[in-house]
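Tokens for chain A. Residues wanted.
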């Protein structure tokens, strides 16, 4: 019984943080709103100020609030930028894929289905700068001195340029997990077997289609890239499985 009470007391900061977080997510508290003072929160939740302070630290660690000093200071709901949200989303997606047993084929299907969702918008809205970013990465990928890690980073950068060409920050946020989390993990499996020349050729086809505003051709290039990625991944996984089996040559 004492242990249960101690656990309940230990959870108080988490409970308070969740209550405030729910208020932010529901819109009851919006960006730049000032939270009640530590004293008021302590009275509302019937806890000590150090307990409130710990709860606020947790919200700050989640980038949900900011604190300011001075006569007009206090804790305020933080205005989260799209770039920060994308980074957090990519990190969460990487963790999700790393700790769960997600089949390569499932990840591959999800990634390319998500990426194809923006091709029509990218074709309609792409700018000269978007195309220049994609062409620059293709040029980088053609360099023989590029390391596997650098090739992977360039691969991610090219697909991020495609996503950003759609000109929709919410889509860029949603696809951050697909491009910046799934793609590197897939590259970790396929890098030893892939043909850089073939990938560069597919990237060039994709970029040409985006420049020509031909969404059907862009989707076809992504479909071919998906098939090639799946073929590589399944081949590498099968080879690893065969070498681990005793008695298999």
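Reply:
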């Amino acid at each position: 019984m004492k242990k249960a009470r101690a656990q309940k007391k230990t959870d108080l900061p988490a409970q308070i943080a969740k209550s405030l977080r729910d208020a932010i997510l529901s819109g009851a508290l919006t960006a730049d709103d000032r939270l009640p003072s530590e004293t008021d929160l302590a009275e509302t939740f019937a806890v000590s100020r150090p307990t409130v302070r710990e709860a606020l630290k947790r919200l700050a660690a989640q980038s949900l609030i900011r604190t300011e000093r001075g006569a007009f200071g206090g804790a305020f709901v933080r205005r989260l930028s799209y770039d920060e949200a994308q980074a957090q989303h990519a990190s969460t997606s990487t963790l999700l894929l790393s700790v769960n047993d997600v089949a390569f084929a499932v990840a591959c299907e999800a990634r390319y289905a998500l990426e194809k969702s923006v091709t029509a918008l990218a074709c309609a809205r792409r700018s000269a700068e978007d195309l220049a970013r994609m062409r620059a990465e293709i040029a980088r990928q053609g360099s023989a001195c590029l390391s596997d890690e650098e090739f992977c980073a360039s691969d991610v950068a090219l697909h991020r340029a495609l996503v950003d060409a759609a000109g929709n920050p919410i889509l860029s946020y949603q696809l951050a997990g697909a491009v910046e989390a799934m793609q590197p993990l897939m590259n970790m499996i396929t890098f030893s077997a892939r043909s850089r020349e073939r990938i560069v050729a597919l990237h060039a086809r994709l970029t040409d289609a985006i420049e020509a505003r031909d969404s059907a051709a862009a989707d076809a290039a992504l479909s071919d890239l998906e098939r090639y990625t799946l073929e590589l991944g399944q081949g590498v996984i099968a080879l690893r499985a065969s070498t681990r089996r005793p008695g298999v040559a």
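The two ends are 60 Å apart (CA to CA). The longest strand covers residues 65-68.
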